[in-house]
Amino acid sequence: MTNNIFWYNGKLIQSQTIELDINDPGLLYGATVFTTLRVYGNSLNSSLTNWDLHCDRLRFSLQTFVWQQPDWERVRQGAEMIMQHFPTLRITVFPDGREWITGRFLPQDLTEKQTHGITTSLAMSEYYRSLASHKTGNYLSPWLAKTSVPQDAQEAILVDTAGNWLETTTGNLWGWRDGSWWTPPLTAGILPGIVRSQLVNWLRNQGLVVHESPWTAELAQDLEAIAYTNSVVEIIPIHTVYQPTGSLQYNPHHPKFQQIKRFFSMT
């Protein structure tokens, strides 16, 4: 396998570099939309791969921005080519409809993080995501938030100006308290994660209560256990959250996490 391969504008390219016009808005302004998916069972048709939902996410943003739709058959062709080399795909679309598909491997320490949890840190409120309902190429704020955390922290949690917790730089937050699940609402200005929306519906169909409520500092402090989810890492517990003063500790081995893990065991 090689990292030096990607799909761009209808072609499979073996290189570590991509050629873009110096006036390309994707280069100048981060004017792209993207989605990142994990291929399950080596199939784009797997119910856990969620190919259609990821394409719908791209379509929604392209329609909202009045950008050109790509050649969707070519997008799928490129995805099928790159998934032969990587289990994770990042599908990017430029304003003029060009598609760019890159791949990467799962993190080597993913199982350890899923089992034992990670340390995170609250980010400064200035590091909010722009156009929160869309995954755009302008990801500077989350990148700055994640790279500015203490050395032993693996993630950052974005907050609003009131101190409410929103999401991590790469996923949606989940917490357990009072016999039910809690997750920040979309109205707070967070990304409508594909896994998040599916989990909300799936957990409720299992007869479980899911509160979509703002995560005030008080609520966050009272939660028994917290984690974040996304389409690649599934669920990762959080055992420590650094704050400007002190830190919060949570149980990364909380038995209720098994309820969410069962969702990812479906085929």
Automatic annotation (TrEMBL):
A GO term, aspect molecular function: transaminase activity
Domain of life of the source: Bacteria
UniProt GO cellular component terms: cytosol
Keywords (A to Z) from UniProt: Aminotransferase, Transferase
Record carries keyword Transferase: yes
GO BP term, pick one: carboxylic acid biosynthetic process
Presence of keyword Nucleotide-binding: no
Name recorded for this polypeptide: Aminotransferase class IV
